[in-house]
Design brief:
The protein has 429 residues and is mainly alpha-helical. It folds into 2 domains: 149 residues, no CATH class; 224 residues, no CATH class. The protein has 15 helices and 5 strands. It has a 3-stranded antiparallel beta sheet. A hairpin with a 2-residue loop joins strand 4 and strand 5. It is globular, with a radius of gyration of 26 Å.
């Protein structure tokens, strides 16, 4: 909505460029300040020369410095614009009299639209500004961020003031009534439908979650027993075949049980699980959100080490190295393709979807993330509970907004690809 005595018009490129420059200056200042503080703490804890203090004295300061560094990489470039656009305008836009609204209704952007606009913003930056070029030529002056979020950037124009006679004397006011804001009736409808209850109940979900552990342990035991019986060496071709058989058995059994419960017991189409393509912006948003999720998990990992400084978080690393023989291709196929698809169906499509409509959105997000973390790593490695939990929060939220499993699969794949490459390359693991 325009302030009193003003109306909204399509924003010009010059003003938008000025707001962009102001916002990036603020983002740079916040990020550089945070990175400087973090680096200072680390240098203080681990000086380049001289005797080092005891490890117990060093570690908290080092971890605090790392935490500040990581927050400086995610908060300014991701959280700053998302919060600004959800509120109607970033600080730079407000300074120059700009507003960002839903292109169809003129309403304030939802959190989902703000998230999409942020990822479109990042794609435009990564393509050296290619996503901003259509602003120069398009009738509605919309770039990739606006297309993805179904948004429109407007400028506030003050109406000329005149003196007019009134019942109590002369008064100053606008020379004419404000014109309605320019909107696009044919723009993509970004209305977020309320979540409905899934047809399956806790009597369906609990058996899947409860049997997940016995199936996993049973498959692992069977694979190890088979390897010993056949005298198969670790890292050999036979061991790799058993590792893949183990992986497929664990996930396949859980997925088959879900299909039987949803499709045959509840007579519900599998599309209800979110096994459908979402609106295209959510697919495009997957990679930038995957980077954000990876940094977010790193933040959780540092906090976990602060809370549990003596916990050992290398079990996953050792397991992945040993299970797939150190092969990048084979490990990526298992950990970055099979696992993300399977886990997104189990923990988002099935478990989170059951919680939706039965409790508030953020309650469902947090509970499902806790279940995901406990089943994924938290029961064996307490220091990994928080990073996996934070990743689960983002994945559940994206599922809720996109109403599809595939954006989460892309994000999950991106996280695991980066993690696997670091595990296989980093010799200290």
């Amino acid at each position: 909505m325009a302030p009193p005595g003003a109306e909204l018009h399509l924003a010009g490129f010059g003003r938008r460029l000025g707001a962009f420059a102001l916002d990036w200056a603020l983002i740079a200042v916040i990020a550089v300040a945070g990175l400087t503080v973090g680096a200072s703490l680390i240098r203080t804890a681990v000086p380049g020369t001289g005797p080092l203090p005891p490890v117990d004295q060093n570690l908290p300061l080092v971890l605090l410095g790392q935490l500040i560094d990581l927050l400086s990489l995610i908060v300014p470039p991701f959280v700053y614009p998302a919060i600004g656009w959800h509120s109607g305008a970033t600080p730079g836009m407000r300074t120059l009299g700009l507003r960002v609204v839903d292109a169809r209704s003129g309403d304030r952007l939802t959190w989902g639209q703000s998230l999409l606009r942020t990822t479109g913003w990042w794609w435009s930056l990564l393509t050296l500004g290619a996503g901003f070029v259509p602003i120069l030529a398009g009738r509605w002056r919309r770039g990739l961020p606006d297309w993805m979020a179904s948004s429109l950037v407007l400028s506030v124009q003050r109406l000329p003031l005149v003196w007019t006679p009134g019942p109590y004397g002369w008064a100053i006011g606008p020379a004419r009534p404000p014109q309605p804001a320019p909107l696009i009736p044919t723009a993509r409808d970004a209305t977020e439908a309320k979540a409905t209850r899934a047809s399956w109940t806790w009597t369906d979900v609990v058996p899947v979650l409860v049997t997940f552990f016995p199936i996993m342990f049973g498959a692992n035991w069977l694979a190890e027993a088979t390897a010993q019986g056949l005298r198969i060496n670790a890292g050999s071709g036979g061991a790799l075949v058993l590792s893949y058989a183990d992986e497929i058995a664990v996930y396949g059994a859980s997925l088959l049980l879900i299909v039987l419960l949803v499709r045959w017991r509840r007579h519900t189409p599998l599309t209800t699980l979110g096994l459908r393509l979402p609106a295209w912006p959510w697919l495009v948003a997957g990679l930038p959100l995957g980077f954000a999720a990876y940094v977010l998990e790193d933040v959780g990992g540092v906090i976990g080490r602060i809370v549990l400084p003596t916990a050992n978080a290398t079990n996953q690393c050792v397991g992945i190295r040993g299970e797939f023989g150190g092969s990048v291709v084979l490990t990526l196929l298992a950990v970055a393709v099979i696992a993300p698809i399977s886990e997104e169906i189990i923990f988002r499509s099935f478990t989170f979807r059951w919680l939706q409509g039965r409790m508030p959105l953020w309650g469902a997000v947090l509970v499902s993330a806790a279940i995901f973390s406990a089943a994924h790593a938290g029961w064996a490695e307490p220091s990994l509970f928080l990073p996996v939990f934070l990743g689960g929060v983002l994945l559940a939220y994206v599922y809720a907004k996109s109403r599809s499993v595939w954006p989460g699969v892309i994000i999950h794949m991106a996280i695991n690809i980066v993690g696997v490459i670091l595990i296989l390359v980093y010799s200290g693991c």
